[in-house]
Design goal:
single chain, alpha+beta, Deoxyribonuclease I, Chain A, 6-stranded mixed beta sheet, 4 helices, 19% helix, 26% strand, DNA-binding, EC 3.1.11.2, phosphoric diester hydrolase activity, metal ion binding, Endo/exonu/phosph_ase_sf, metal-binding
Length: 254
DNA sequence: CGTAATACG
């Protein structure tokens, strides 16, 4: 089973820059998307295509903001939107597809760079998400992918020193990823690659991408019950169209 | 610099 995650930074924009060609060639069973920026009611513009069915969670509080979704060719048992905690509903940040073998969660975690209020919201979202994942995990294993908006270690961004006070590499944000992994969620990419220089996001400014001045902030984590099933995890850094690139996971479900 | 609406990342 092949899974993908991609922060597309506007589905309308990437649709004109090869998104559906990428999906068709991806061999993906489920592709989770973040920052779709589709408004409520406009989901029909991005319907079934090439054997894939879509599901979207739009932001209901800001036009053209946030939003997550998925294209899948394997039908889920159930579909849910957003976290149960009412403080963290409405921005279109979580899509949950339930499959027989696991819960598939795709998430766009808040960006904390706009100010203290948004950093507080991000940290609160992290805690509420962990509680929700732990609750779901009581029934079956978890696969979670998406834009976590935090680089975990010094290996996960080009310039760790100069970003120690930047949201996305703050000690408290990194400490939450420590806590998350301590609960038994495995960073799948790191099962296969321990070196630095592997990134999933590059600033549009300063020719950051051509210079590979990037951050690894898009991840696949699995709860450790699934760790023996992880066959492959990778970063598709050659795929353009967004300031993020896709990441992939292959599971051997036997 | 870029998306999509004039804010946000």
């Amino acid at each position: 089973m092949i899974l993908h995650s991609w922060n597309v930074n506007g589905l309308r924009a990437v649709a004109g820059k090869g998104f559906f060609e990428w999906l068709s060639a991806s061999d993906s069973d489920v592709a989770g998307l973040q920052e779709t920026k589709i408004q409520p009611g406009h989901e029909a513009d991005f319907g079934e295509v090439q054997g894939y069915r879509p599901s979207f969670v739009s932001c209901t509080v800001k036009k053209g903001y946030s939003g997550v979704g998925a294209y899948y060719r394997r039908e889920p048992l159930a579909v849910n939107a957003e976290l149960p905690d009412p403080r963290f509903r409405g921005e279109g940040r979580l899509l949950h597809l339930e499959y027989p073998e696991f819960h598939f969660l795709t998430v766009y975690f808040p960006n904390g760079q706009r100010g203290q209020d948004r950093l507080d919201y991000k940290m609160g979202y992290y805690e509420a998400f962990l509680a929700h994942a732990q609750e779901l995990r009581r029934t079956k294993p978890i696969v979670v992918c998406g834009d976590f908006n935090t680089a975990h270690t010094e290996l996960d961004l080009k310039n760790p020193k100069s970003n120690e006070k930047t949201s996305g590499f703050l000690p408290e944000e990194r400490a939450w990823l420590d806590r998350f992994t301590a609960h038994g969620y495995v960073d799948c990419f790191r099962l296969f690659e321990q070196g630095g220089g592997h990134y999933t996001w590059w600033d549009y400014r300063f020719q950051a991408r051509s210079r590979n001045v990037g951050w690894r902030i898009d991840y696949f984590y699995v709860s450790d019950e699934l760790r023996p099933r992880v066959k492959r995890a990778w970063i598709e850094s050659q795929v353009t169209g967004s300031d993020h690139c896709p990441v992939g996971l292959e599971l051997d479900l036997g």
